[in-house]
Backbone:
């Protein structure tokens, strides 16, 4: 899509946002548990309301998913049919991409430049990727004895519950919805309270594209009401989740208390970005390290939030990074000039500020930022913040902030770098900057994380899985591997 003009964006941003409803069995309905007021992080003002689904609403959504699955209107549709529908959905996302991006920015505060690329742009690509996979991934015949025919079928699992967070709702939502639908399942989606609007629009586009009623249901509402009811359902086969560790723990409990549904959890991170003195270009690495933590105001699961720097270049590197970070413009996320938009909510902002004060109490030194900014807007903005002297026992080293705060820790040699990198309960992403090829490979092998970037940070492709180890979760989004979560293997053992 061509870069939009500021006036295109402003025109869409001036439109009133209609109240959000629940999508159950192809019908848009009010929620039995009332409404949730949506505040825009841009100015703290009411943007709209969304429906709050009661346990009864959730049960109806699950029942509609089950009925559509059993009826076979989607699950037994010829693969070419499902493929055509998902391609049509991708077309519609592309056609509505500016509207989706602006709506999402008003809802969650991501800067518009990033929203355009990472939200509708990425989601359309994800639907196309899995649309294309539908008729390329299929069963096998096992090499058994000559008088036996053993067929290994891949079948859809049935009803999938997807619970997603607020930071990139369309992108992360598509990572679940696209492979689940491609495999022939019916789904019930539960978006985050503070970022539902683009996913409601996506569901509407899915109906328009031809996803049959009941196959894609959306229930909005508080996690402890709507999410909990969905996770406790006795008729959900698989639950896929992206969000925080504490919620992930609850979901496992709910699964144990209900029908032992399979749970795949994509959780948080505290990812180390390790800079050796022999990095190919320290200035470029400093700029990339600033982007790695400050893009989307640090609200990125793979953010490089722990910077580990070799002592000999520590001071030089930190000052280059601080110069880059200071130049990043914090402002109204609807402005094309903005590089760091709003923090998603006041709760999130207050949490970030709490991390800064604890870091100072524990002996960290703020070398950049540390404060709320643009207070006059009424929105939730925070300066990019760099804290040096952070030790492994500090809260800022151990806990995920999910905000624009970088913890910096020096190291003396490779073994200390590896020890510090792995001193975490998390294991989502990481980065290594070095010109030494052998060291790069040793670090890739040594770091316990789902992703190790070398001489870069970030970057992704639909063909490449994303997932964590340790308390960053299990299972992977993206790539053909993700289809394993949405399909069951069934064996037919036939005596010839
Ligand atoms: P969260 O856990 O607070 O909420 C996520 C979702 O869970 C929301 O829809 C929420 O309503 C729901 N929820 C909350 N309590 C629930 C309950 N008791 N039962 C059922 N559902 C419940 O997380 P968040 O603040 O929305 O998102 C930020 C977190 O997501 C961070 O930890 C971040 O690292 C993580 N994240 C991970 C990835 C990844 O790929 N690993 C990607 C993006 C975000």
Residues:
């Amino acid at each position: 899509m061509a870069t939009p003009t500021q006036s295109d964006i402003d025109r869409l941003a001036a439109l009133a946002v209609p109240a959000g409803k629940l999508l159950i069995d192809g019908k848009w309905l009010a929620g039995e548990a009332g409404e949730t007021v949506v505040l825009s992080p841009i100015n703290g003002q009411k943007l709209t309301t969304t429906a709050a689904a009661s346990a009864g609403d959730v049960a109806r959504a699950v029942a509609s998913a089950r009925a559509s699955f059993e009826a076979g209107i989607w699950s037994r549709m010829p693969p070419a049919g499902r493929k055509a529908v998902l391609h049509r959905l991708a077309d519609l996302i592309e056609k509505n991409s500016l509207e989706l991006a602006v709506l999402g920015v008003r809802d969650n505060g991501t800067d518009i430049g990033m929203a355009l690329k990472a939200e509708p742009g990425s989601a359309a690509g994800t639907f196309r990727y899995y649309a294309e996979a539908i008729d390329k991934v299929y069963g096998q015949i096992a090499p058994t004895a000559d008088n036996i025919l053993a067929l290994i079928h891949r079948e859809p699992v049935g009803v999938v519950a997807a619970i997603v967070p607020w930071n990139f709702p369309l992108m992360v939502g598509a990572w679940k919805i696209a492979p689940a639908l491609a495999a022939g399942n019916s789904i019930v989606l539960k978006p985050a309270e503070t970022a539902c609007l683009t996913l409601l629009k996506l569901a509407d586009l899915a109906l328009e594209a031809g996803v049959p009623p009941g196959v894609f249901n959306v229930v909005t509402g508080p996690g402890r009401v709507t999410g909990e009811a969905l996770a406790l359902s006795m008729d959900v086969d698989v639950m896929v989740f992206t969000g925080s560790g504490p919620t992930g723990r609850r979901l496992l409990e709910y699964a144990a208390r209900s029908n032992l549904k399979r749970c795949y959890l994509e959780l948080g991170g505290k990812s180390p970005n390790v800079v050796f003195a022999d990095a190919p270009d320290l200035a470029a690495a400093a700029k990339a390290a600033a982007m790695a933590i400050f893009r989307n105001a640090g609200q990125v699961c793979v953010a490089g939030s722990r910077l580990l720097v070799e002592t000999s270049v520590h001071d030089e590197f930190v000052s280059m990074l601080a110069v880059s970070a200071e130049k990043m413009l914090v402002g109204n996320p609807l402005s094309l000039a903005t590089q760091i938009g709003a923090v998603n909510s006041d709760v999130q902002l207050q949490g970030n500020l709490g991390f800064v004060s604890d870091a100072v109490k524990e002996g960290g030194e703020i070398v950049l930022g540390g404060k709320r900014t643009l207070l006059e807007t009424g929105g939730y903005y925070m300066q990019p913040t760099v804290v040096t002297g952070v030790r492994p026992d500090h809260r800022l080293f151990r806990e995920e902030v999910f905000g624009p705060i970088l913890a910096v820790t020096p190291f003396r040699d490779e073994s200390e770098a590896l020890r510090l990198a792995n001193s975490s309960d998390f294991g989502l992403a990481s980065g290594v900057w070095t010109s030494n090829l052998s060291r790069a490979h040793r670090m890739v092998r040594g770091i316990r994380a789902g992703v190790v970037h070398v001489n870069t940070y970030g970057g992704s492709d639909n063909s490449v899985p994303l997932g964590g180890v340790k308390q960053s979760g299990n299972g992977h989004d993206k790539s053909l591997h993700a289809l394993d979560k949405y399909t069951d293997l069934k064996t037919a053992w036939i005596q010839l």
In short: The mean pLDDT is 97.
